[in-house]
Specification:
With about 190 residues, the chain is an alpha/beta fold. The protein has helices at about 25-35, 75-85, 115-125, 145-150, 155-180, 180-190, and strands spanning about 5-10, 40-45, 45-55, 60-65, 90-95, 105-110, 130-135.
Length: about 190
Amino acid sequence: MSNTWLVVGLGNPGPDYSRNRHNIGYLVVEELARRMGASFKKHKVRALVAEGRLGIGGSKLILAKSMTFMNLSGGPAAGLAKFFDLGPDQIIAVHDEIDIPFNTIKLKIGGGEGGHNGLRDMSSALGSKDYYRVRVGVGRPPGRSDAATHVLKDFSSTEVKDLPFLIDAAADAVELMIVGGLLEAQQKFHGAGS
């Protein structure tokens, strides 16, 4: 596996969105930065970036939170990939996923975007769909509620109780995918969320 990884947490900038379901990617990269003792700093590609290593002598991680809105996530991701000279196979997108239940994590490389505009923009800007994804389940909205409205709402009071465990597990999944590879991470985390 490569020794340098770009981990892009998808979300929307600003305090109004900080606890939305759509911002789970931000929350996970913030946890990864906390574990490495790294701080986010502004980067010229309109992203906040934190750099560190997974343990002593471990892989270098470049953690990113776009300062653009979700639907324009691709520009900063592609800019960072170019700046650090990284290919799609060295990039991990961490994002919310309505097609899997809350408290569930699924991992994959490539494939479709499932209607996720942040991923669609990222694939377009990178010119490839062949990057890794850590899909963090936020569940579907109840009844006929609108999916876009659902992801732009804060986690429910019930979900908030389990949210720290979900963030922790998703951060663990990112780390294991880097250290042990996709298959090992899939075997451990598919279906697990806490």
